[in-house]
Write a structure and sequence with these properties.
2 domains, 20 strands, 9% helix, 297 residues, mainly beta, Immunoglobulin-like, 2 helices
Length: 297
């Protein structure tokens, strides 16, 4: 009964955070079944725009029926939209996986994480549960013959942690784990496609005052600064016009394409593709594509 109550409370907290836009440390990745001689580890992600002090948090052991011993976390600053990996053996993690930033691997005591399933519980300084993952081997890909050394990765940070489908095996192309880096299975969007509004689906720069230009306006979250590139490609994959070149985007704005190439010449009629590439400070990327017709009388 106690476990059901705790799970219900954690679910309610996750929904409230999603609706209200609250952010902070979240459980991001778990390696509970390491290879022989290697260490277990837990990755946390700072989903907010401000640094977080790790020592204000603790990891709590789940005994199977109640919360048990609390493991205080050491001093460490987690950058906005940054990662930290908790493990008993940092060298084991660095030597076993492709780690871009060894400074993100922090040694500390952790509770054991059974291979048969268990819970990762993150608490704040007052002892309140901030995030909780209840994991099972069945969360892994059914195509895996051997789950040893394969981490479970979170797909969405703005969905409840234990939502069905929110966890999956790290991809083989990323070495079966991504400690300290963006998850290979991440489905997080930097911006919704509807955040970009195209004034027309068919551009006709004939000077009649109707659809002579394509205006692309956008509305973005003010608390998550993004950089962006916007380029126009023809159907042969050639870039014919650059509208944005890696600029830092404000919370709102617009760019305009007048149907001309980089040299100012009108392009031939046809179908073109506008490609918008977004980047955040953590190095995450997102690509939005939109097809635009181009007509001339």
């Amino acid at each position: 009964m106690m476990r059901c109550v705790i799970l219900w409370l954690v679910g309610i907290m996750a929904i409230v955070c999603r609706v209200c836009g609250q952010s902070g440390l979240l459980i991001s990745e778990l390696l509970y079944e390491p290879r022989s001689g290697e260490a277990e580890w837990v990755e946390l992600y700072n989903s907010g725009a401000s640094p977080v002090e790790l020592s204000r948090y603790s990891i709590v052991r789940w005994t199977g029926s109640e919360m048990g011993a609390s493991y205080a976390l050491p001093p460490h600053t987690v950058a906005p939209y940054g990662y930290v990996v908790l493990t008993r053996d940092a060298a084991s993690v660095v030597n076993s996986y492709a780690v871009a930033d060894a400074g993100a691997i922090v040694e500390c005591n952790l509770p054991p994480y059974p291979n048969t399933g268990g819970s990762v519980i993150l608490c704040n300084a007052s002892g309140a549960v901030v995030d909780r993952l209840d994991y099972l081997p069945s969360m892994h890909s059914q195509l895996l013959h051997d789950k040893t050394g394969v981490s479970l990765e979170r797909r969405w940070y703005d969905h409840p942690t234990n939502e069905v489908g929110n966890w999956f095996s790290a991809s083989s192309t990323h070495g079966y784990a991504t400690p300290g880096s963006r998850n290979s299975q991440s489905m997080e969007l930097l911006a919704e496609e509807r955040s970009f509004d195209f004034s027309t689906a068919v551009l006709s720069p004939d000077g009649d005052g109707v659809d002579d230009e394509l205006a692309i306006s956008y509305e973005l979250a003010a608390d998550r600064p993004l950089s962006g590139r916007a380029e126009v490609y023809d159907l042969r994959g050639r870039m014919v016009r650059r509208l944005l070149g890696g600029d830092v985007l404000g919370s709102h704005g617009a760019v305009v394409w007048n149907g001309r190439d980089e040299q100012g010449r009108l392009l031939p009629p046809g179908q073109y593709v506008v490609v918008i590439m977004l980047y955040n400070e953590a190095g995450q990327q997102q690509i939005i594509k939109r097809s635009v017709g181009y007509l001339l009388p």
